[in-house]
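Data deposition worksheet. Section B asks for the primary sequence of the deposited chain exactly as it was used as input, without tags or linkers unless they were present during the calculation. Section C holds the resulting structure in token form. Section D is free text for depositor observations; keep each observation to a single sentence. Incomplete worksheets are returned to the depositor.
Section A, Depositor: J.P.
Section B:
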Amino acid sequence: MIHSIYDPDVPTRQVHEAVGMETSWSPEQLCILNDYAWWLDEWARGERPTGPRMVIEAVAGSGKTTVLKEMLEITRKICPEHRVMASAFNRHIAKELMKELKIAMKKGLNAEILGSSNTVNAGGYMLLKKESEKRRVSMRMEGSRPKYRALCRQVWAEWLGDLGKKLEYEGGRDWHLINVIAEELDMPLSPRKVWYRVARDLESVVSVLQDCGFNPTDNEGEDRESILELVRKNAKSRNLEGSSFYAFPYTMNPVDMVREVLIRGRDMAFEREICLEDPDDAVVPRPTWDKPDNNFINEGRYDTGLFPLRRWGHKSDEIADNTQLNWRPESHVHNYATMSFSDQIWLPSVLNLRLNRYQFAFIDEIQDLSVTKGNLYRSLLVDDGTETVVLVGDTRQGIMGWAGADRQAVKKNAEASNCISYPMTYSWRGSSEVVRSANYAMLEATDQARKLWPTHPFPRFSDHQSPDLESWPVGIEQETIDPRDLVAKIQAIRAENPDATQAIVSRLNGSIGPIAKMLVKKGIPITTPDSSEMLKSIKWVLTAYKSNEYAWQTLAKQRLDEAIKRAGGDKKAAEMDDLYVKAMDEIDLARSLIQMYPKQGISNFKIPEFNKWVKNDLFRDSGNPVHLTSVHRYKGAEADYVYVLRSIAHEDAVKEIFLLDHLMHKSPQTAQEELCILYVASTRARIQNIIVRVAR
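Section C:
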């Protein structure tokens, strides 16, 4: 008899005939599969009102993919005729689920793959496509011009236009409001720079509100309160603290602007274009390329003023288009509605769109869901209340708060679907020594976090355990080495076992560069999961290097000066500033990569050629390369030996890589995310964790 949870009156059950017993299931796994089979069987026979509603809280390496695969097989045996989806928002995980769906479909399961990616986002596309057809318009996705960037600039330009009319001001540099914002942000008194800064910050706030599922109403007062509360709650985790949103003399000005952006984005979503309501009065910066004419004496590059569009006469449309004020499709086909990628997630929620299609939903990685992402997967299901929902996630692996994930996502989505919780605490990935290493690291890190935030309920990382089997591999005890010994250790493992996989995992991208130099110098092949994302993050540094070979010093000093201004002159606080830490990380990475580039000197430096060299020559997937990766890019992956890069020597100091001090002190939520990042890094190894730390 097997332990059972879903019916309190039945504590144990026989193994259902649909559960495949060829696999040696753990007691936790067998409980999940058996309850799923019996619950589903009872629903199919009309004895229960809904299919199974389960949330599986699975530690890293617990075999969730194997369990989901068996659940698909049980579904095929009991209810093969109903539509099934198995998806995630993470592309890597969605791709893995796609493979299992294809196998099940060949066996006769009525499963469907969402779009070409199988991500839940593709389900949002399906909803918008259906609504477009209902409204008799065609649909396409945005190109190089992001929709909400255009709408934020549009609303900001119109708002300034209304202000200019009230002041009877024809434009220039003498905008009192702009000067106040610049002073509050410690920016140079450049109206052009302030204009673009405000537009960017409005876009960031709009993104936060969309992730939170905010839907504007007819009650402006209540909307204002809701917006301010959501911004307050997300300010630290989404880096809004230094935003120009707070720099306006009257706080409700930017609040009303983001509200208007969302109203236009929602109410005009299926329009072919969303253009300026008052193109003559909208106020924009003068472009640097604008030449002197009858309206302007000086060249645009010397004129940083803001002017109403009417000042350009017949060129006003060109200026508006150059400033990206209007949301127009790139195609000239008239009957097209162009959607943004954020529309795929937000619009179905605020427009209450329903697909009414899937009887079964298996959703993985739910700890990374925002409010609107949770709403989205539910909108794809049948709407008669009978659906089967299986959610899989782990609060201990919640590392996407910076991207809008709700830190209570597991709990909230389980409650929304009335799910019963099932634990999976045995890790089938790592040896006993890897589990011991991870538990020790997390015990130490959690103690550190609790000293800072004693009342915060941090996740129970100690639930992570090895299978209770005599035959389970012991592995190799954790080893701690100095970064100077890293190359020798890698070489020793490659010599002893040429087929063993090795990965170096870092919290910061900037630390990857120096390590890459060390390995390349010794002829050790390296690779990385996503070089394109890495190159995108350092593009601004590469651009600066093209014109100044000493960009490392000038950029670093410039970013520190900016951080000191934001910190009110406090250098110590400035060095813990999020934007400064991120910028220095990107500068360090770019510098290391350029120093390895064969074509030295800025006269030979071309960014496209450099990017090609990084992708094709530096990071090559051949010769059993060592994986160099950030934690976020290695989630879901594993290797025999994993080097957790805890600290490195940096200039004349020791640079800590994990448990970043400024984020540990920032809030209990950001401290929790730092713990989760360390947990993910510590649970990637199969044989041994090797801690890389500067010897003190």
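Section D:
Residues 147-167 form the longest helix (21 residues).
The chain is about 45% helix and 10% strand.
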